[in-house]
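Q: Given only this backbone (136 positions), what sequence would you predict?
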């Protein structure tokens, strides 16, 4: 019951426009949780594979390629973590961790990004609630 009264005290002390801002901020903080969940799902659901043919990289570093998944499915799309040099060297059979429409060169990047997104969201949520508490 203590948490309920804390929340009620918080909202009671805010002006109506401050309540709206608080609710909007808390709703926007759900987006990084979605990204963290997506990266965690990819970490558990992907497959080790290799590129088929050459990859095509743009000068800004975005590389596109295709790969074969278990069961004969073909995947394709942007490969995160691959540098522009891979296109210049015309490398083939680059090891990947991939799903049907996504790929990374290092599987651990997925869980690192998910951890950072989750931790950052928790910290920002605490800051938003602290500011709201101070204002109320």
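A: Predicted residues:
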């Amino acid at each position: 019951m203590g948490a309920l009264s804390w929340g009620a005290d918080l909202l009671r002390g805010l002006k109506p426009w401050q309540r709206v801002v608080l609710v909007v901020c808390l709703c926007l903080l759900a987006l990084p949780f979605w990204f963290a969940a997506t990266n965690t799902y990819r970490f558990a659901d992907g497959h080790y594979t290799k590129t088929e043919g050459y990859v095509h990289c743009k000068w800004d570093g975005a590389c596109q390629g295709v790969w074969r998944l278990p069961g004969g499915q073909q995947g394709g799309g942007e490969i995160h973590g691959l540098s522009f040099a891979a296109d210049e060297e015309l490398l083939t059979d680059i090891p990947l961790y991939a799903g049907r429409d996504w790929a990374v060169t290092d599987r651990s990047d997925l869980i690192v990004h998910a951890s950072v997104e989750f931790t950052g969201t928790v910290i920002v949520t605490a800051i938003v609630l602290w500011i709201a508490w101070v204002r109320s």
